[in-house]
Amino acid sequence: MNSHSLGIHFGSSKPANEYFKPNLLLGLFPTLFPYGCGAIEDLSRPIKVAFRKHIQYLLTYQDKRFETHHSFMFVVFNMLQKRDACFNARLMISRSYFKNVVNQLQTLTPNEIQTALANLNKDKISSISDPRINTLLKGIKTVGGHVHGSCQSRAALRTKIHALVYKKGLPIRTVHPADTYHPLAMYFTGVNT
Length: 193
Description:
Elements (H helix, E strand, L loop, with lengths): L2 H4 L16 H6 L22 H8 L6 H4 L3 H22 L4 H9 L3 H13 L8 H14 L6 H18 L14 H6 L5
Helix pairs in contact: 5-8
């Protein structure tokens, strides 16, 4: 099997399309797929398996070759992040109000965006007065909030933790060591160790 039959072209200046390319991971990781089969999103498969489910299955192989590979997990996580971001962006642009948002965002100049970024980098808490920039930031937070590992998803998790602490109180863990074996308890009772 040569590299052209797998659909791999080395040395291209353009990034490879990773959507519905079942041979992409086969070519990237020939040691993980030594027989050239078992591709993710293979269209010839009689029962379709979702990308995420197939990755979960591969990571639970008994021989742990996918789990312990030095870069497989990072490449696949990156692919999942991009897919989540694109999916959430597609959901956002399908909303009825998005046409108005696009019209507002098209009036932004690169200098205005750079000034807003500089202001955001100076202050942790910023008060940007331009509503167009605020709309852009809100869209970024909305899309990024559903992408695992992003700053927005971590902020959303922190918010959930704060809400849980507010509702249920701080988590408390009490540890009671056995007094019969504790060195201080044995000392005070007169037992020599």
